[in-house]
Amino acid sequence: MENKEIKEQKKPRKKVYQKSEAISGASNRAISGASNGATSGASNGAISGVISGAQSGSSKIRKAQKILNRRRGQRKREIIQEAVQIETEKNKKYLIQEDQIKILEIIEGGPKEQTDDVSN
Questions:
Q1: Residues 105, 112: contact at Cβ < 8 Å?
Q2: Residue 21 to residues 15, 16, 27, 109: CA-CA distances in angstroms?
Q3: pLDDT tens, residue by residue, 30-62
Q4: Residue 77, Cβ neighbours under 10 Å: how many?
Q5: Distance of alpha carbon 31 from alpha carbon 39, whole angstroms
Q6: CB 77, CB 71: distance < 8 Å
Q7: What pTM value is reported for the model?
Q8: How far, CA to CA in Å, does 73 sit from each of 11, 69, 76, 99?
């Protein structure tokens, strides 16, 4: 019995919100009052202040984006340079092996032939 009571207590209760007519009527009156001609002049001044603040903030945002783009470009260039360095190192090793083969060919007097026969 106690377990059932504990489970019943732990069950979440659903909250049901109902829109009452009194609240909706009050909100409609507030909206209609705000759209009056007398209040529109004051609200225009407030809005223009917000817009000018947003414009000055947008220049800061643009500067920050430029800085980020520069950093991204630098990272890309660094990655490309590292890749080129790694590639040149691989090429150097390959060229060194080719040069060694050519030197052996010159010393022995002809192109080196690979033979599978080990009994020589």
A1: yes
A2: 19, 16, 10, 107
A3: 555 555 554 555 555 555 555 555 555 688 999
A4: 10
A5: 11
A6: no
A7: 0.33
A8: 55, 6, 5, 38
pLDDT value of position 48: 54
Let me know if 24 is exposed, middle or buried by CB neighbors in 10 A (0-12, 13-18, 19+).
exposed
Split the chain (120 residues) into runs of 10 and give each run's mean pLDDT. 69 65 55 52 53 65 93 93 87 75 78 56
- Give the end-to-end CA distance of the chain in Å, rounded to a whole number: 95
Q: DSSP letter for 117, please.
A: -
* pLDDT in the model for residue 70: 94
Question: What is the C-alpha to C-alpha distance for residues 94 and 67, in angstroms, rounded to an integer?
Answer: 41
Q: 54, 60, 57: which is closest to 68 by C-alpha? A: 60
Query: Which residue has tokens 């009056």?
Result: 36
How many CA atoms lie within 13 Å of 7's alpha carbon, on the beta-carbon side?
4
